[in-house]
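Hi P.,

Sorry for the delay on this. The queue was packed all week, but I finally got your sequence through. Input first:
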Amino acid sequence: MTGTHFDNTYFHFFMDALQRNENLQVINFPTENSFDASILKNKFDVVLLWSNNWFGMPEEIIGIKDLEIPVVARAADPGDQNDAIKNHKKLKINYYFHFMPESYFHELYDNNFKFKTIVYGLESSLYQNLKSFDERKKNRILNTGACGSNKITNKIYWFLKDRTVDNPYIGYKLRTMVNKLSYVDYTTTLQHEYVNDKFPKLLEKYQCVIAACSDTPTINFWEKPAAGCLTFMEITKKNRGKYLGFVDGETAIFINENNYKDKLQEFLNDPNNHKWKKIASQGKEYTLKNLNNDKAVESLVEIFKGLV
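Then the structure:
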């Protein structure tokens, strides 16, 4: 939470947006390997943990079970739940939140765990003053994020090792398939200069981008339309992406494993059609209005009010 990590989306939510909300008085406690929670007794209404997993957390939180203060935690990402679930009683967690749909959370965790879907991670100020749609590349399509390699040996290795969503050929199946197309430019998560708060500067180079994750939507599903890109978005029954509120043909173009080539080719065959610019504009407006960090904090405040 220093503001220099490659994934600054969490920093802006926890360190910036929470402080901006007039209904909250937030005090942060930087920790080492151990934290004595007894210093919080009778001084706070809610304890907020950045994660229910140990990554980025102190290895030990002493006395948290003795507090008569509700504990709210961001749920760990899918794939990390087996370790994280062990901390439910250990950290006395009362409520969870994450941007995954509630039905998916309860597939990963106990049905009795209280949970709310909160779409966080989009810091609106980073998406101002980007290049206009007409100034961007229109003959190339951008695909970003973790993917499986096209090497058959790599694919065999992964399927022998792991058949969960941690396997990129499962969790990122469509994203991996798209990379085989000759007109797609691909960047990994980290191996380029546009990490941290610079990601919108990569997005502004392209009229058209792909947001694909086969198990559940990720943050780039709202980062990409927020940058004014025409976003070809994997929305399927399997990944339950409709909860985000995008409308096919109005704020995004929905794709799946069967239609993605035809959908992308339709754009490339007629890139000057005004409808693409309109969809990109409406997608940006919808995202910045409804899926920003300040809206996310308002939803978190509702959890707090229900617990106090």
